[in-house]
Amino acid sequence: MVNDQKHIDEYFETEEEIEGEGKTPPFQTPKGVHDILPHDHEFHTYIKKIVRHRSRQAGFKRISTPIFEFTEVFKRTIGEATDIVSKEMYTFEDKKGRSLTLKPEGTASICRAYIQHNMKDLPQPVELFYYEPHFRYDRPQAGRYRQFWQYGFEVIGESDPALDVQSILLAYKIFEDLGIAHTLKLQINNIGDLNSRKVYVEALRDYYFGKERYLSEEDKIRLQKNPLRVLDSKYEDTIILNQSAPKFKDFISPESQAFHEEVLEYLTDLGIEYTENNSLVRGLDYYNQTVYEFWDEKKGAQNSVGGGGRYDGLIEMLGGQPTPAIGFAMGIERVIAQMKRHKVRVPSKDDLHVFVAQLGREAKKICIPLINQLRDRGVRSMGALGKGAIKNQLKIADKFKAPYCILIGLTEVRDQTAIIRNMIKGSQRTVKMSEVVDEIIKSVGKENLDFYNPQDPIDL
Ligand code: ATP
Ligand code: MG
């Protein structure tokens, strides 16, 4: 299933299985994955609206790639020595023995799609965004799940510091709209081009030579396979060792240096604060030049809410023509956690307007078409259920937090009337049955009605 099963099992040995004292239902979600319950869907929908709006404003179109791809798409691009490829991919064989992998990230698949659909023939840059689930065999803990959602975008086909800055700005604007920009700080670095990185990697090898005993087993392997990955280590001793390691900025070419300075200058002009972070390399190997992340500085790298970077070599790695590109991705669960931590409220449309309570079969007969009529006129309504006493139905209405209740009993059926009860004030009045819908609309307020017009312009 996963590349290195033995290693993975050791990795999770300490994790306790979720088991109750005989009270747990027989089926639970597997470790690391979650149901998105209605309350969290309010957050998802809110975030989705904001990211769509900001992406659309900037000329982006939406793309969805399949949940699984040929394993090679990820192996070849993300890098053998990265956490993702070495231990986090959900890889399996299909019935014909082909190796497939659930997508651990979005960029490689989008580049595969760019090549497959000849997007180089479209006006460049091609701007695409996505809101999709991703899968990684990560160690389950706060902010780390095995299925998680990402919003991300890619700008493919042009290279210019202005595009790097516009990407960062778009991400920043989204965090602003979400009400969390002030809680995050931009970390930025330039990791140079392929050639200067080769020289730098040699310098890193020299630096760690003779210090291997301070590295974790995992970092020793990283040092062998790709010393840059040691800089991305989350082990405490390695982090300390990394602080004195040679710095990128002393190795990158004058062109990269100039590129970087231009990016920083534009950021300053835009008033976006940043921290120059010389050991930021990101979790994937395909980046070059600009890399960046947004962190809550109180929490550090472990809780990066999102990040991005330039990946000018990626399309070529997948067999396309050399094509410069830059992208960004943010983790929706981490965004939601950050919003909750900072008490950002999400306006909900889910609240009911009216609960309809009735007594007796004759009343129920009136209530079903009445509810239908209310809904058609934009009133969120439910009711006409059960046979309980009106008093019990009022209790239910209260639990559903409906601000109004329509009551129809034997008397009302006979008199062709209905009672409208204001659940907040506890007051009530009798109105003619023919007027009850208009009366309710007056109380709810026309501006609060829930209409959907299929002719509205499409929101992707
Ligand atoms: P980290 O170093 O924290 O593992 P990463 O380098 O693997 O992050 P990316 O691959 O760039 O992260 O993913 C972009 C964003 O997706 C991250 O900033 C984070 O918000 C989110 N993310 C990554 N892995 C997970 C996960 N297992 N569960 C939830 N969110 C995640
Ligand atoms: Mg990771």
Total of DSSP H or I helical runs spanning 4+ residues: 16
Q: What summary fits the major beta sheet?
A: 8 strands, mixed
Any idea what the CATH architecture of the largest domain is?
2-Layer Sandwich
Please report which band the strand proportion falls in: under 5%, 5-15%, 15-25%, 25-35%, 35-45% or over 45%.
15-25%
Report the top-level CATH class of the largest domain. Alpha Beta
How would you describe the shape? elongated
Spell out the CATH superfamily of the largest domain.
Bira Bifunctional Protein, Domain 2
Helical/strand content category: alpha+beta
Number of domains: 2
State the separation between the terminal residues, measured CA to CA.
Answer: 35 Å
Unreliable stretches, pLDDT < 50, 5 or more residues?
1-20
> Looking at CATH, which topology of the largest domain would you report?
BirA Bifunctional Protein, domain 2
Helix content estimate: 25-40%
Order of strands, main sheet, comes to 1-5-6-11-10-9-7-8
Number of beta-strand segments:
16
Which small compounds were modeled alongside the protein?
Answer: adenosine-5'-triphosphate, magnesium ion
Write up what this structure looks like.
The chain is of the alpha+beta class. The protein has 2 domains: 32-193 and 252-341, Bira Bifunctional Protein, Domain 2 (BirA Bifunctional Protein, domain 2, 2-Layer Sandwich); 354-448, Rossmann fold, CATH 3.40.50. The chain is 37% helix and 19% strand. The chain contains 16 helices and 16 strands. The chain has helices spanning 5-11, 38-57, 71-78, 83-88, 107-116, 161-177, 194-208, 217-225, 236-242, 254-270, 314-317, 332-341, 361-376, 390-399, 410-415, 436-444; strands at residues 61-62, 68-70, 91-93, 99-102, 126-135, 147-156, 185-190, 274-276, 288-295, 306-310, 325-331, 354-358, 381-383, 404-408, 417-422, 427-432. The strands form 3 sheets. Strands 1-5-6-11-10-9-7-8 form an 8-stranded mixed beta sheet, with helices on both faces. A hairpin with a 4-residue loop joins β15 (417-422) and β16. The longest helix is centred in the first third of the chain and has 20 residues, at 38-57. It is elongated and about 95 Å long. The two termini are 35 Å apart. Residues 1-20 have low confidence and may be disordered. Magnesium ion binds next to loops. The site of magnesium ion has 2 residues, from loops.
